[in-house]
Amino acid sequence: MRTLWIALLLLFSGAKPSEGAGVFTIVNECKTTIWPGIIPGDSFNGGGFALKQGQSVVFKAPVGWSGRIWGRTGCNFDRNGNGSCQTGRCGSSLKCSGSGETPATLAEFTLTALNFYDVSLVDGFNLPVVVTPVNAQGGNCSSAGCDGDLRRTCPSELAVRVDRETVACRSACDVFDTDQYCCRGVFGNAATCQPTYYSKTFKTACPAAYSYAYDDPSSIFTCSQADYIVTFCSNRKNRVCSYHDNRLTCSGTEGGASARKWLMATVLGLWGLLPLVLL
Ligand SMILES: *[C@@H]1O[C@H](CO)[C@@H](O)[C@H](O)[C@H]1NC(C)=O
Ligand SMILES: *[C@@H]1O[C@H](CO)[C@@H](O)[C@H](O)[C@H]1NC(C)=O
């Protein structure tokens, strides 16, 4: 037994979790299939794919990647990847090469030496999104995004309905097109563009997301080096895990708990029982 532990410890120190390197895990916790759209999408399966309920997928972003990830709902694509969606569509293509149609919740990233990321509802909301950094070094590196589903609390004048069901919530700027809601003209700076009744409704559902254009201090986050788990239809309090390079990493467990979990995964993995851990 003692020998086994020493062997494991050696293995453990040799294969210590490395610092983050732009690995993205995209997880669908929704009750239905979604079709993530990603631009630029060259390293993300061409920028679009179907993700069934409970599925996750792992990608490695290119160095310096700057882009956005959103979810599309209610899609129908033919065998050639041609079709349409109820929300978030990028033209008629499964693989996105341009922005998605609003309203759509966006996860935005700029992976410079310091990574910047946020969840934005400035172009409306279609799905709850949470961005959770893992394997991070420093920065105010916490979970961005939603605690609730704005489709349930969307003011009726902003709601997009299909068969009387709210499938998305438009931004007040999109619906009313005024300088105040769009932060333009005399409202074109952080001092004059203040929260409104509508942006406050958005902020309640997604406290760590942009609810209007100048909502910066509580909405933009930084990490120096990290991997990211982007989860649809979850909330910031849920633990999320990514399995990548024979390694299981979970959110909110940078200390001993994570090491123990990881060791467990390693031990079980050695016995070929890894699928059980993932269940
Ligand atoms: C793609 O589908 C749309 C309808 O969704 C159709 O109008 C268009 O002709 C199709 N394009 C191709 C290349 O099949
Ligand atoms: C995180 O740090 C950035 C850059 O220093 C800052 O602009 C932002 O307001 C901070 N975000 C939070 C939520 O504290």
UniProtKB/TrEMBL annotation:
Disulfide bridge partners, by residue number: C30-C233, C75-C85, C90-C96, C141-C223, C146-C206, C154-C169, C173-C182, C183-C193
Family matches, as SUPFAM superfamilies: Osmotin, thaumatin-like protein
Transmembrane segments: none
SMART domains: THN
InterPro entries referenced in this protein's UniProt entry, alphabetically: Osmotin/thaumatin-like_sf, Thaumatin
CDD domains named in the record: TLP-PA (cd09218)
Top-level taxon of origin: Eukaryota
Segment forming the signal sequence: 1-20
Keyword vocabulary terms for this entry: Disulfide bond, Signal
Pfam family, one: Thaumatin
Family label: Belongs to the thaumatin family.
Protein name, per record: Thaumatin-like protein
Source organism (scientific name): Musa troglodytarum (fe'i banana)
Classification lineage: Eukaryota, Viridiplantae, Streptophyta, Embryophyta, Tracheophyta
